[in-house]
Design a protein that fits this description.
With 208 residues, the protein is mostly helical. Helices cover 81% and strands 0% of the residues. It has helices at 7-28, 31-37, 42-48, 52-76, 85-109, 111-119, 121-142, 151-174, 180-207. α4 crosses α6 (111-119). The longest helix is centred in the C-terminal third of the chain and has 28 residues, at 180-207. The protein is elongated. The termini are far apart.
Length: 208
Amino acid sequence: MAQILKPELKEAIIQSARNEFYNHGYEGASMRNIAKAAHMTVGNLYRYFENKEDLADALLSSTIDKIDKIITGEIQNLPTNISNEQGRSAEFDARIRRLSMGFAHIFETERKEFMTLIRHQRMADQVVTSIKRIITVMVERWFSQVDLFDRRTDMITSMLASAIFCGLVRLFEDSQDSAQEEIEWMIMTYLNLFTLMISAGELHYEKK
């Protein structure tokens, strides 16, 4: 007869994993240490989670969903056919402000999950993909002369997304004792620099 899994034990494992992943990273985290902190055997832990990846998914999926929701919300409400630079600038500023506040809030309220996520390559790649998606949609809707099917354009949007993410990782790693308002300002300033790069890229593309 199969034993009944207890929700409180599952939650104890996740709480232990939160500290272990945060302190040692995904690669360095030990399932044995997690089981010990949760006051159970390793064998019992594996009744709840198939492996370390399964446990990481359970711990971080909610944080990933919140990040993706922030980015997806900006894409869904993105206006089309903004041909003048002033209009695009206003839209960039508004969206960057919301993104900055959203990222800073998640960092403030789910710090251990957030830091574990950005240090975990597979899950970090998901965030980079989401960042690339919003860059691509902005370019598609606001810079009609840019060919998104051009291999070079795709490479540039991938490079921008990766660069944005790497900078944010450095920012969060170095700002764990900073106030939320300060983090918001740093994210906003950093992302604004990339909007200038995107606008400059439009001029370069026209001359190609």
